[in-house]
Every structure is written in structure tokens, then in C-alpha cells.
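Example S7 (C-alpha cells).
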């Protein structure tokens, strides 16, 4: 198991970037990028869908489908998830994320959007589960809190803030939904990062 640092100290942060921990940091950054690729969706999807003529009820149903997919995955995944597949699973999550945001950009039909929304079970839930699973299985107990804190700071703080603001600018100066293309690019970059730099934690 990987030992990083028990406490949030400067020494602990430096340890993360040492050569022996580079694959761990790759996974943290890649998963954080995948979570941050939801910035456009979380921040602006309701506004965009309503501007395209979807009723408030239909928008609510779209959100409900995504949450249902997420809940179902969390209920079932523990039975089938295997440690040896985590690298391939994250590549799969990155691929699905890329196509989800492309489809969300292209599709306006409500019923097709319902299908696209079920991908939330992969793009958010499976990605998050994989990262927490990795922390639980491959990190020393004394380092788990520290590594998980880094993960949350990146995905829920720094990255998603940057890309929420970026999507806001895109909405202001374009027709509105080009932010999804930025999100698909972010997912693609996450895939590239995992593919070339993350295989040591297979």
C-alpha cells in the first residue's frame, strides 16, 4: 500500500509529487478532471434546456433520471467491482464522459436526453466510486484522509470552479451550449492522462 502523509502539511503535499507516487497523483488529477467535466451540466443545463423549450417538469425528470442512475449504480457496484479492473474502469468512465457531453450538446429530443442522462451513473458515480475504492484499497490507513482531501480540493474546489466560470463565459459569448464541448475535451484529456501515465496502478 502507498503511504503519503498522515497530516495536511507541506511535507505531505511534496510527498504526493515524488516519483513513487506519480501514478497516484495521476489518478487523483484524472478523476478530478472527470468530475469537473460536470461543471457545465451542474451550473447551466437547466437554463439551457428551458431556453430550448423544455418545460420545468421535463427538466426535473431529466435530473431525476440522472440521480436514479447514480443511486442504482451505488447499490449494485460493490458486488461486481474488482481491484484489478480499476485502470480499465476509469478509462471507460473517461470515454463515456466524452460521449455524454457530445450527445448532450447535439441532442434536443427529450426522450433521447433521458437515455443520455442515465450515463450519469458512469460519469459521476462510477468515477467517484473508483477513486474512493482506490484510496480505500491502495493507501495506508494513516494517509487515506489526506489523499481524499486532495481529491476533494481538486474536483470539488479548484477544477470545478475554474470550469464553471469558463462555461459561464462561453454561454455569454456563444449560442449557449458550447460549454459541453469544453467538457468533452476535458474528459478526453483525462483519458489521455490515464492512458499514458496511470497504468502503474493497474
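Recovered sequence:
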Amino acid at each position: 500500500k502507498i503511504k503519503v502523509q498522515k497530516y495536511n502539511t507541506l511535507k505531505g503535499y511534496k510527498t504526493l509529487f515524488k516519483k513513487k507516487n506519480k501514478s497516484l497523483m495521476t489518478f487523483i488529477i484524472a478523476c478530478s478532471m472527470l468530475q469537473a467535466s460536470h461543471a457545465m451540466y451542474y451550473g447551466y443545463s437547466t437554463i439551457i434546456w428551458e431556453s430550448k423549450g423544455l418545460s420545468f417538469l421535463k427538466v426535473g425528470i431529466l435530473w431525476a433520471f440522472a440521480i436514479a442512475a447514480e443511486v442504482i449504480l451505488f447499490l449494485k457496484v460493490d458486488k461486481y467491482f474488482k481491484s484489478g479492473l480499476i485502470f480499465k474502469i476509469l478509462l471507460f468512465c473517461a470515454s463515456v464522459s466524452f460521449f455524454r457531453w457530445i450527445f448532450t450538446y447535439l441532442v434536443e429530443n427529450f426522450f433521447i436526453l433521458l437515455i443520455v442522462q442515465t450515463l450519469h451513473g458512469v460519469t459521476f458515480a462510477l468515477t467517484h466510486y473508483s477513486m474512493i475504492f482506490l484510496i480505500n484499497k491502495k493507501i495506508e490507513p494513516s494517509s487515506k484522509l489526506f489523499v481524499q482531501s486532495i481529491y476533494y480540493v481538486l474536483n470539488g474546489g479548484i477544477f470545478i470552479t475554474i470550469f464553471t466560470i469558463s462555461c459561464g463565459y462561453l454561454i455569454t459569448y456563444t449560442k449557449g451550449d458550447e460549454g459541453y464541448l469544453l467538457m468533452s475535451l476535458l474528459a478526453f484529456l483525462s483519458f489521455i492522462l490515464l492512458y499514458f501515465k496511470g497504468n502503474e496502478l493497474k
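Notes on this example. The chain has a mean pLDDT of 87.
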